[in-house]
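note to self — DONT lose this again. spent like an hour looking for the file last time. sequence + predicted structure for the chain T wanted, 356 res
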Amino acid sequence: MKLIGLLLLAALLEGTASQYTDGYFNWLARILGYSRPRQQYYYGGGDPVTPMAADCPAECTCPPILPTAMYCDTRRLKHIPSIPARMKYVYLQDNQIEAIPDGAFDNATGLVWIALHRNKISNEKMSNQVFSKLKNLERLYLGHNNLTSIPHPLPRSLRELRIAGNKISKVQTNSLEGLDNLTTLLLNDNQLEDVGSSLKDLKSLSILDLSNNHLKKVPQVLPDTVHQLYLDFNHISTIPSEYFKQFLKLQYARISNNELTDQGIPFNAFNVSSLIELDLSHNKLKTVPSVSENLENLYLHANRINEIKMDSFCGTMGIMNFSKIRVLRLDGNSIRQERLPEEIHHCLRQARIIDI
């Protein structure tokens, strides 16, 4: 029993990585016929390492508990290290990587997720075919690099492409060709002036972020699958008639910080039954545009609004209808409480009206 007690004590002390403790453990183990598990062995530092981790690049971390993930982020890397074939998730963000040569991922064609955001990657130093070989790739993060165009071709398996914060001024017609599974596209914080009809064939697109670009008009044609649309911080002054009627699933639209005027918004432009949240703040509106009775959140702060009409919220039936609006922001306008229609609180009986 004493030997067993000593053995347990030695096992506890082993975590301190003392060479004397390690030798004592081995001596006791020989007496009692104990041996270390075969799946562990020691490197010079004394830390247990699984054989699977032996193929992990020295500059990265491959946790045994996550055998298909490789963490190489924030390591000041200037190149992409060799990736073991077993990897599905590779995190290379926040480094100084400038180039992606052909063959960079050839040893790990089963990759599902690649994070390369916040590096120094440019199109000139990227192989055209480097991503197309990855037939299982679902998420590709290339935001905040030095890209001037979207890499092409991309694998058809892709579901999420984040390429915000680059220097992209144009989306080529074929850049997103064949991406039938793409649900999320983040192109915000680029230099886009127009995207034309380059996004129309993205049959599964749900989230589209084009905010903080140089757009002077809304995208000409978009898939009718769009659920969230972000167009804030652009130079949009008009909305085409019936434009939002094409989006049967649109629930969130943000067009704040643009140059919209009353003249630029056709009657019933936002009267879309699927819409739940609409942000038109920081524009040049003087009146409240007509919205659907199903709308729940309406942000109109920091405009020039000095009048509110009943039919903006409750249609032509006025008091007989009830709006579902819960939050209505009108702060930073010229409207005054005494100028509200008497029936407005009945129509907006669920609403929290902020700072009139």
